Amino acid sequence: MFSRAYKAAVTLPPLLWVTVFLLLPYLLMFCYSFWSVSESQTIVHSWNFSNYAQLLRVDVYWQTLLRSMSIAARVTIFSLVLGYPLAYFLSFYAGRKKDLLYQLVIIPLWVSYLVRAYAWKTILGSEGVLNTLLQYVHLTKHPLEFLLYSPFAVVLTLTHIYTPFAFLPIYAALEHIPRNLVEASHDLGATPGQTFWKVIFPLSIPGVVAGATFAFVLSLGDFLAPLLLGGPSGIMISNIVVSLFGAAYNWPLGAAISFCMLLLVVSLLFFSERLEKKWSFS
Amino acid sequence: MTSTAAAAGRAPLLRIQNVAKSFGKNVVLRDISLDVAEGEFLTILGESGSGKTTLLRIIAGFETASAGEIWMGEERLDRQPPYRRRVNTVFQHYALFPHLTVEQNVAYGLRVAKRPEAEIASRVAEALEKVKMSAHAKSKPSKISGGQQQRIALARALVNRPRLLLLDEPLSALDANLRRQMQVELKSLQREVGISFIFVTHDQEEAMVMSDRIALLRSGELEQVATPRETYGRPATAYAAQFIGHTNLLKGEVRAGAVRCGLLTWPADLPDGPALFSLRPENIHLMAASAAKSGSVRARGKVRHQAFHGATELIRVECGDGMVLVVRTPGSSGMLDEVELEFSPADAVLVRESPERI
Predict the structure, then answer these.
(1) Which chain B residues contact residue A279 at CB under 8 A?
(2) Nearest by CB: A188 against B109, B140, B142
């Protein structure tokens, strides 16, 4: 048994941390979302739903939110399509090279996000590596404009950045599958293809759900990639929030949008946790 | 010799010919040749590290032999991937699919073979019936006990009507009572379905109780392949004699038709030279308990240790000249001190030395 003093000493710091840096700010944000800004640019503490109404009424807000979700969904799908085969290969066929390859997948995570985003800028730009190459081999006459400052660039960059996040939980789930289940499946006459779809894939679903959640949630809230590579057509909801809190000085509206995103993400996490539980059998 | 499948009057179903296996420099199996008859219960018995599981995995197709061939009838089995072999395995830790119900687990083999659903349903029901698990058809494997999982693993394999069933220490995870019960059940099930079983175990008692024949494996080589009775009564090697049951190993010297072993001597029709004999404790009798038979070998000694085993007792008798004999006597002998022993020379079985192997 631990003494009460010890228990208090252990639980108090994280409790304080969560209260001061999470609960209070969220509460404050929640309050802000019901306030408004006066003509003279001061925040009026009058309670109403006008910010939420504005969010629904003004096209640019909900359209950008929808676009952000669509970009996040595409990033999720591409990350899974890239991350799953990679994880599967590493877990089942890499043999002794497993650890080395695993490190190679992880290493990009040690490189600053900003550097990786900038790298794509130099690759995709009109004077960039890709366009120069395409023109050099005479595949194109002019630089391809859609490469940079477009949703395409944002999806590409975010996919590159978040694929390791999708890969990791999938790899962990695959590593968890007892290999004698695979042998049992072959033993019972299942071909490698049947074994994959009937045994390996179902047992890796918790990893896929976790990976998809990481990729979706992280890219939904991203604002650097659209800022650097998105251009006008590629801006995402976080860019709007940033400008509302900054140049536009409309904290209440920014707070309302933030709160909607928070709700979206929390319900998503709740849903994915239920899904993961349903598919885990240990 | 009664130890070959052909002599038992049954055609060999599986022929293992000169199979060897190494992992890198580590030699696990050397030149294994073994036949399994149709409907036979063959046990591969060996200590851990003897290569018994590797041999089983080679038959199942999870490992490839470094040399040798395996034939099932006219078909070269070792060239087929595991999913094309008409062989099924009961795994040591059952390997039931955790995401499928008991019923779905049993149906797995039939489903991947794309049998009609009606046939699957009836065969699965029948298989569950056979292992007395119908009541748990809808349960997930994690919700049933180890013994029950064992039965499901068995049903899942048998439902495919394989020609050969491989069992990799299937009872080792069960507690002693359940284990004995399952031994009986497994054996009667095997008789009922008439499928050949290759059963791997490290437990010599289990091997004796269940098998038609025992293949004793030691450090990757076969020591002896014979019926349990023959293996016990006529062990081929010192290792076989010691691994299966208790024995006294007597190092003797043959000269002019007589064996000399310490103070003991008995006639034997053997060439001159050193010889090693196995003498089972129960074949040595206390003189007081039975009238001396003519031609028996007699010894006198002091009882050093007495261990009560219920129906019988094992006593260690020092017979002079450093020789200690272990004797099995009826459990009702009481405390013993000086005893006179006798055994029949026919019960001292000549065995080969088992050389040390790495």
Answers:
(1) 99
(2) B109
| Sign of the alpha-carbon torsion through A214, A220, A226, A230 | positive
- ipTM of this complex prediction, to 2 decimal places: 0.85
Closest to A79 in 3D by CA, of A105, A42, A51, A118: A105
The predicted model scores a pTM of 0.85
Q: How far apart are CA A91 and CA B289, in angstroms?
A: 68
Which residues does chain A have within 8 Å of residue B96's beta carbon, measured at their own beta carbons?
Answer: 184
B251: β partners: B276
Q: From CA B197, how far away is CA A117, in angstroms rounded?
A: 62
User: Min CA distance, B344 vs chain A (Å)?
Assistant: 51
Q: Which two tokens stand for residue B345?
A: 């020379």
Contact B198, B56 (CB under 8 A): yes
Residue in B93, B142, B160 closest to A188 by CB: B160
Neighbour-count burial for B76-100, b at 16+ CB within 10 Å, e otherwise: ebbeeebbebebbbbbbbbbbbbbb
Instruction: Look at residues A46, A19, A40 and name the one whose alpha carbon lies nearest to residue A252.
Output: A46
Q: Does B24 touch chain A (CB under 8 A)?
A: no
How far, rounded to the nearest angstrom, does the alpha carbon of residue A23 sit from its chain's CA centroid?
23
Q: Report d(CA A68, CA A74) in Å as an integer.
A: 10
| pLDDT per residue rounded down to tens, chain B (358 residues) | 344 444 455 578 999 999 999 999 999 999 999 999 999 999 999 999 899 999 999 999 999 999 999 999 889 999 999 999 999 999 988 999 999 999 999 999 999 999 999 999 999 999 999 888 999 999 999 999 988 999 999 999 999 999 999 999 988 888 888 888 889 989 999 998 899 999 999 999 999 999 999 999 999 999 999 999 999 999 999 999 999 988 999 998 999 888 988 888 898 888 899 999 999 999 998 876 556 667 788 888 889 888 888 888 899 998 877 889 999 988 776 777 888 888 999 999 999 987 765 4
Could you tell me which chain A residue has the CA closest to the CA of B158?
A188
SS (H, E, C) B196-263: EEEEEECCHHHHHHHCCEEEEEECCEEEEEECHHHHHHCCCEHHHHHHCCCCEEEEEEEECCEEEECC
Pairing of strands B264-267, B258-261: antiparallel
List phi, psi (to 5°) of B196: -70, 135
